[in-house]
Structure formats: C-alpha cells, structure tokens
Amino acid sequence: MSFLRRYVALVDGFNYRLGRVMMYGIFALMAVLGYSTFSKVAGTPSLWTLEMAQFFMVGYYILGGPYAMQMGSNVRMDLFYGDFTPRRKAWFDAITVFFLLVYLGILLWGGIESTIYAFQYGGERSPSAWRPYMWPIKVVMCVGIALMLLQALSELAKDILYLKTGEPARADTQAEPGDAL
Amino acid sequence: TPAIVKAQTAIKWRFQTYAGAALGEHVTKPIIDYINTAANGELEIELFYADQIVPTGELFQALQRGTIDGVHSDDDSMASPTPLRQFGGYFPFATKHILDVPVLFNQYGLKEIWEEEYAKVGVKWLSSAGQDPCNFNTKKEITSVADLDGLKLYTFPTAGRFLAQFGVVPMNIPYEDAEVAVQTGELDGMAWSGITEDYTVGWANVTDYFLTNNISGAWIGSFFANEQKWAELPDHLKSLVMAGIEAGHTYRNQWYWGGEAKLRATGDKLELRTVPAAEWAEVENAAKAFWEEIAQEGEIQQKIVNIFKEYNSVINEAGPPYNFG
Amino acid sequence: MPYELIALLMFSTMMVMLFTGQRVFGAIGFVAVVAAVLLWGDRGGYDIGFSAAIKLMRWYPLLTLPMFIFMGYVMSESKIADDLYRMFHVWMGGLPGGLAIGTIGLMVLISAMNGLSVAGMAIGATIALPELLKRNYDKLMVTGVIQAGSSLGILVPPSVVLVLYAMIARQPVGQLWLAGAVPGLMMAAMFIVYIMIRCRLNPDLGPVLPKEERDAVPLREKLALLRAGILPLVIFAVMMVPFVNGWTSLVESSAVGALAAFLAAVLKGRMTRAVFETCIRQTLGITCMFMWIILAALAFGAVFDGLGAVKAIEDLFTERLGLNPWVILILMQLSFLVMGTFLDDTAMLVIVAPLYVPLVGELGFNLIWYGVLYTITCQIAYMTPPFGYNLFLMRAMAPPEITLKDIYRSIIPFVGVMIVALATVMLFPQIALWLPDLVYNN
Ligand code: NA
Ligand code: NA
C-alpha cells in the first residue's frame, strides 16, 4: 500500500509539474507561427518554421498528455459508465486500464525501434530542405509515451487504493465545469 | 486442381508507392496489376498509395522491418540512409532525358553501386528508371532567375537544398496535401515534376504557370523489396516481378515522353513561361559547384559524381538530340 | 479469415470496448495495435501505432487546433462575450422569445471567433442560461437553444471539424469554411423561426421582458451597446481576410486569430491571472484529448486500410448492391447519424470518413458540399445521447433544476430543425457552394 502511495505521489507529482510547464507551449507555438507570418510579410519566408511548429505541437500534446490524463480530460463513453457508483467505476477502470496499457506499450515499442533507427546510419534526417535530425523529437515522443504509461499505471494504483481503503485516492480534478470534457 | 492449391499458398505482399492514387494509376498500378495477373494467384500484391499505411518519412524503416514488403519511391524523398540519397529524385542537371537513367544504371555502373549500397542496409533494391523532368508550376509567373526568390515550393529535399541559393523556400509536406497547400497559401507552387504529373494529379488546377526550364531532365526512381520477403520468393516469381517492373518502365517512358510534349503544346490550364537559356545557365553553373560539394561528402558520392560527369561529357560531345545543343 | 470479416470484427470490438467506459483513445488504440500485431506481428506490425504519430506530426493543419481552442477559452473565460450578451438582451428583449433569439445571435457571433462548440457552450451555460431561467423562460427551450446554438461553432467558419475533414478529403480549407458560412446562417435563421413560432403559440415559453425593465436602459446606452458587436467582427476579419486573400497561410491565420483574441482580452482588462490560468490549462487538456484520439484513430485507419476495407465498402455499395448514387449518399448520412449518436465524433471522422469520402468523390458528388453535409451530421452527433461533447458540457454546467432527462428532451425539436437544414442543403447544393464559388472563382 505505501509503495503504491509513493508511486502515485512520485509519478503524479512529476507529470503534474511537467504538464504545468508544457501548458505554456501554446505560446511557443504562437511565437513560431507568428514569426513565420512576420518573415513572410518581410519578404523572406523562413523554411524551418512549419516543421518547427510541428515539433512543438508534438511536444505539447505528448509531454502534456499525462497531465491531461490527471485532469480527466480524456473523454469516455459514459452511457453505462456514467451511472456507475464510484466503487464500480474503480472496478471497471482497474480492469479496462489494461487496454490503455497495451496500447501505450505497443506505441512505445514502435517508438523505441523508430528512435534506434534515427540514431543509425549517421543519424536520420527529415526529408525536408532544412533537414533536422529526427532523433531529438523521437526521443521526446518516447519519453512522453513512457510517462503516459506511468500515468496510466498510476491511475490503476489509485483505483486499487480506493478499492482497498475506500478513500478516494484521486484529487477531485473535475471540480470545474470545463474539466468534464 | 493445381490452380486452387496454388491460390491457397498465395504469397501476399503489401506494396506502397510514393504517388497518390491519381498518379499511381499510371506509374505503379500497371506493374502491380501485371504481376498479379501473371502470377495466377501464387503472388498477390496489394497496392497502397502515398502515406496510406506508413508516412513517406518512415517508409525505409517500414520496409526494413517488413511492415510493408515493397516500395516504389526515390532515394531522396524516402530518406534513404545510404550515400545514394541525394542522387535519387532529381540530382540537379544530372540527366537530360528519360532514357538517360537506364543508360546510367545499365551501361555506366550505377546498377552495381545501388545493389551494393542497399545490401549493406538490409533492403533489396530491384530496379531504377527515369520519369519526367523537374520543371516548375507556380501561381506567380517566373520569367527570370530572380523570380525564384521568395517562392515557397513543394520540392525534393536535395532539389530544395540546391534551389535555396536562389531564394526558393523549399517545403516538404505529404504528397497528397500539396494541392490543398497551394490553395491554403502554404505553397506558391511546385518544383516537383513535368507537366504530365501537373495535369494528372490536379496541380494544374491550382497553379497558373509552367516554367519550361528544368533543373533535371528525369526523375530517378526505384523499386525496393523487403530483403527476407524477396529471398523467400521462388525464382520464377522473382523473374515475373522483374518482368512486370520492366514492362512498367516501358509504359512510363512513352506515357511521360508523349505527355510532356502534348500538354505543353495543347494543354489549356497552364501558361508556358521560359527563362532565356543564357540566363538559366546561371542555374546550370551553380549545379557544377553543387556537384563538387556533394562529391566531397564521401567516396561513393565521388564515384557517382564522376559517372555523371563522364556521361555528360559523352552526350555533350554527341550533340543533339542527346543534349540541347 | 477473410479481410472483410476481420475489419468487421475490429469495428465491433472497438464499439464494445467503448461501452466499458475506458478512455476513448485507449479503446480505439488497443484494437488498432493488437490487430496490427496479430495480422503483421512477425513483420513489424507493432510499429503502426508510432507510424501514426509521425503521420499526425506531418498533418500540419492540426496546428490550428490548439489555436482555435485557446481562442474559444479566451472568449468564454475573459467574459468578453458578456457585452455581446447584454447587447442582444437589450435589443431583443421586447420580442416574445426574444432572449432566446438573442442567444442564437450571440452564438453565431461566437461561432465566428472559434473553431469548436466548446466556447459557445461555456458562454451560453454561464451567461445566457441563468439569465433566461431568471426571466421564466422554459427550461427545455433554453437548454435546447444553447446546445443547438453552440453547435454552430463547427459550421460557421473557422471550423476545426472542417479542417479535419479537409485533410481527409484533400479539399481546400478556405473553400470548405466559406461553404459552411451560408448554411450556418441559414440554420441559425431556422432556429430563430422555430423559436418565434413556438413562442407565438405559447407565450409562456419565452415571456417578453417587462416594459419598465426595457425602458430602464436609455436609447443612447442601447446604441453604445451595439459597439460590442464590433469586436467579434474585427477578430473574424483579422483572421479571415489575410487567409482568404492568401497573405497568410491557414496555420498562420489561426495563430493571428488566437493572438488577436488574447490581446483583445488584455486590452479590455479581462485577462486576469485566474482567467489566464484556466485558458492555457484547458487548452492543453482539450488539445490532448483531441490529439490522442486522432492518434489512435489514425492507427486504426491504417490497419483498416491495410485490410482493404475501403475497397470492400466501395464494392459493396456500388457493385454488389448496385445502388443509385443518391441512395448511397442518403444511406451514408443515415449511418453517420446512427454512428454519431454512439461514437466519439473525432474518432468517427478519422475512421469512417476515409472509408466514405473516396466513394462520395467517385460517385461524382462535390466534396466541398459533402463537407458541409458531414459537418451538419457532426452537429447532430454532438447533441444526441448517449455520446456527444455538447451533452457532456451541458451535463457538467447546467444548474441542478435541469435534469439529465430535460437535457435529452430539450434537443429533440432542434435536432428536427437540423435534419431539415441537412435535407435542404442536400437538395440545394448552391446554398453551400455559392459563396466559395463567388470568392474563389473571381
Ligand atoms: Na466557428
Ligand atoms: Na452523439
């Protein structure tokens, strides 16, 4: 039990902080696209902005993903689920989280293979004229997916703790209306 | 009956082409259809178009792992991890005509180099052939080299690297998104193909001008297979696949050669523009420096650049129609 | 096992898993990667999931997603829409059902400033809903108005749904957006006509504001309030004019729009610390929700494609059943409607649209027009139980006197109006195509 608690505190704490930083990524994205607009108006459109914006977007939603999961942002189809008691929800989640874990695990597997490839043959470079090396973004993606996996395990841990102790291990993250979505 | 027995043991391949469905109809599908018909159920190849199963950037790894079994693409846009990468697609001013490509491969030694380099990275290279030249189709008209400045063009990585010195902003996006990207303003046009492809895939509908000057006379594209899947193929099917590919080369040779002439002469969607040859020579000369730069990158690169030089000196000495006079 | 059967099995497994209440992206992604591993496992089937992530990265129009979400939140959280509401309140209060009509007007203006229905929903539920209930408006009427009105956010440009559709159908976003404008206004007008008729027949549904309350606001102030309507038009113009003229690209325009909305809130002194915090946190949350669903759905789509499901569906409709193109089109819309009531709309778009859109093109229909039909279907899906974003939001935001049953019942007449609108645009494609033709063919 105390191991589970420590795990939850560690993972949730880390992902929370990371997410709070990634949240500001919207402005980084805006800045790159703003610069892109500006450079076009100035007459020399830059060749790296679109791809850079794509990299930022990937960082934004993959590294921010675990925090979004904590917030309860991921929609569920709640035709039946919505009417369950909290206890029943926890039971269901503790089982069906297996789907999520398998998905994230296989996603990570593919990611690691692709990242290994990105380091081979002198380093994979993007097929664009800017030709950035692909390993940095792939590493970011793998780290993000791995953190997502850890967060999903933490959700499982919280459900187990709740079922064992009867005390909600999850902070009430859906207090604000918009959080339901 | 033997036909049924064979059908039960059919070998299945997933094959992805660089082209979208409209162009793939001409550049890849005839080959796959030919093989499937002739294989009489022993080999069934399913054809997928650009980015359908894996995105073009991941094509090579997917081929290595066997997520897909065969590919039609060029070394450059599929980000080949070999030193051959820049030479696929459009290596600036390396060729003048579509037939230069098979000559370079079969008579000047490129075939052996390609075979060897791809064997090193665990992929079976099957065959290369020429296609259309690399012209420009744009929304703004180009009548001088200076007009290239500031144009955002969909182009190949190496062509983009070369054209950047003239102020071109090269963009690389998924093939099927290029047309829409012109309409949404992400692109001003393409430096990607001859006029046949412009009309076939619909780019002629969204751009207004076609520049008859090119930066290369023929696209160099290849067919590849997953090494293990190729090895597993019985010899008679190997011959069949190669025969299908050769038949496809022949079809494309005439399809492009005839299409380029006819659409320039009678097409009504793109207005032709030409930069005077004397002025375009500036671009050709820049290619010479670019060749030297690439040759410095390694031994293989040096060897290939030398082959291009040798061949170009031969055709220049031979005169028209081998060169433009 | 024949491929068609595997495809069917995948689809039905996914549906079953969705009903377990697990996160939508987890259920879809699980079916996708497991199917890929089972089918092609020995040969790299495991990399389909990650390939989808690279594909998604290269789908550059999705960069607009966080921008439009951010815009929506700035608008709703910073309360710059309050002035707008007051404008409609004062000017429309004298009509029977006038406040409900004004709310539709408010929703149209908000729709022009954001790409989803979330913002309209939030603004409607926080500003309009309590006011209208206080004025003794019928709660079913009010709830329906807000849900239906906010769904205009995806039809009136800019629209995130049309951006996604544009990527799948390979059609220009600019023309699709313009195509949505007139049908969006038409639908708003139809809502208004419905409200007027209902309130004429039964004035209790939407009582007229008392005269003394209306007269309490002097004419000068009334005129001054009209200025509130200028801001949305300015933000809309700042974003759309450079885009339609090709001065800025799609993604750049979205960033310009987001920046404009942000600056407007700052200049009006509404961008407090708390508002700022909510805006960027919620933008991250909603963006992640969408992106992870699309990521999983793309992998699902790639496996589906690999099974030749697209060809199978085309064969089924055109050759085996030998149906008339219009019958096929209507069947597709019906199946979209049915699936839309159950499924997550984004996932539906990424999984089902690639199956249908090529067929629509092959049958000779205009894909711009079809994009509008598709979007209206999505609007309906947003509101219909058991699964819909607007339903989620309404449930979360509605005051306790509005029960779940009320929410479900309230949408019925509005869904009826939407189906009439859908049929109208189907019968008269020019309603959608007139504006893009006018702008782009000159
Ligand atoms: Na909108
Ligand atoms: Na629904």
From TrEMBL, chain A:
Gene Ontology MF: a single term: transmembrane transporter activity
Main localisation: membrane
Signal peptide coordinates: none
Keywords: Cell inner membrane, Cell membrane, Membrane, Transmembrane, Transmembrane helix, Transport
Subcellular location: Cell inner membrane
Ranges for domain Tripartite ATP-independent periplasmic transporters DctQ component: 29-160
Residue spans crossing the bilayer: 21-38, 50-69, 90-112, 132-153
Membrane topology qualifier: Multi-pass membrane protein
UniProt keyword annotation of 4Fe-4S present: no
Cellular component aspect of the GO annotation: plasma membrane
InterPro entries per UniProt: DctQ, TRAP_DctQ
Quaternary structure and interacting proteins, as annotated: The complex comprises the extracytoplasmic solute receptor protein and the two transmembrane proteins.
Record-stated family: Belongs to the TRAP transporter small permease family.
Function: Part of the tripartite ATP-independent periplasmic (TRAP) transport system.
Full protein name: TRAP transporter small permease protein
Organism: Primorskyibacter flagellatus
Top-level taxonomy: Bacteria, Pseudomonadati, Pseudomonadota, Alphaproteobacteria, Rhodobacterales
UniProtKB/TrEMBL annotation, chain C:
Signal peptide: none
Topology versus the membrane: Multi-pass membrane protein
UniProt-annotated location(s): Cell inner membrane
Keyword Thylakoid: no
Regions crossing the membrane: 7-39, 59-76, 88-110, 116-133, 145-168, 174-197, 224-244, 250-267, 279-303, 323-343, 355-374, 380-398, 410-435
Domain TRAP C4-dicarboxylate transport system permease DctM subunit: 12-431
PANTHER family per record: C4-DICARBOXYLATE TRAP TRANSPORTER LARGE PERMEASE PROTEIN DCTM, SIALIC ACID TRAP TRANSPORTER PERMEASE PROTEIN SIAT-RELATED
Function in brief: Part of the tripartite ATP-independent periplasmic (TRAP) transport system.
The protein, known as: C4-dicarboxylate ABC transporter
Natural source organism: Primorskyibacter flagellatus
